[in-house]
Here is the input.
Amino acid sequence: MGTGRVREPQELKILRERIRKADTIGISGHINPDGDCIGSCLALCTYLRENYPDKTVDVFLEPVNKRFLFLKYASDIIHQETADQSGLKGIVYDVFFSLDCSETDRLGFALDYFNEASFRVCVDHHITNKGFGDLMFIRPGASSTAEILFTMMKYDRISHACAESLYLGIIHDTGVFRHTNTSRQTMETAGALLDKGVAQDRIIDETFYRKTYVQNQLLGRALMESILVMDGRVIFTVISRRDMAFYGVDKSDLDGVIDQLRVTEGVEVALLLTEKDDQLYKVSMRSNEYVDVSSIALSFGGGGHVRAAGCTVHGGFRDVINSITAQIEVQMKDLV
Ligand code: AMP
Ligand code: MN
Ligand code: MN
Here is the structure.
């Protein structure tokens, strides 16, 4: 633990030893990276580069939204194109971290590096994570992967830049401490990071609440076209590829849409369907009190947490909604 640690678990000793011996360390997170994923990858990169300057530390991620680019080392992130062109293909990392990833497939183009690495470490907080790699730090009770990473780092070795990335990860996965995954430990971690001088107002406003004009327009449209079903207990909205093209946005611009749907009065489950291809939808799910959306996501090959999960489903949007609401109905019936 960062502050007040009593003893170091065996896994951490093993990890430190592996890192000490390593020359090359790779880090990656899930496809379509969110704030926790990006914050975690860059925090770990910063920690390792600053405390082990003799090692090569590479971060692999899909392109990140520009609001995250102020984080330290964000401009060093290696995307697929660069990786393919720069002769990195086939490189065997001594240690490779998978962060915020519930299953290896979600590593996307970084999966090959992970699979090839001499020692593979999985750090994650998804309840649907069944475990993979040579060493695992899987804590479904943690708000975010950033919160877990904090417990793995030595507090006095966390710099201001590293603290900023960790803090960003926490605020994005907790919706700025609003979601039920926010625990005492989360708040204490955030407090310890504030002591490092993190500019919380700037990070919260500029990376979480600030929206571009077109993001707001799309949000407005998504809310206007939302539909209540199941006696107002479920709300859904569909965003087509045509809508995305019209507003000139990509999927990372949709952050916040599902959160606004979720707080609709009377609603238990909010669903956001984003068209990825013909008859193919990315589904984001959020629940408020009762419904375990992770199990629904899992049944469609996706995953996540009890109150926030996602999956990709084939079919027309009506069929997708029907099969998901059927599962919600079963869970809600169990209540009475
Ligand atoms: P999202 O709705 O995309 O914000 O995702 C909510 C949560 O579910 C996040 O923690 C994601 O990492 C997880 N998640 C989303 N889609 C998938 C998927 N296809 N497979 C596994 N986990 C997912
Ligand atoms: Mn994530
Ligand atoms: Mn996360």
Observations:
- The longest strand covers residues 269-277.
- The chain has two domains: 10-208, 213-334.
- The pocket of manganese (II) ion (ligand 2) is lined by residues 30, 34, 36-37, 100 (CB under 6 Å).
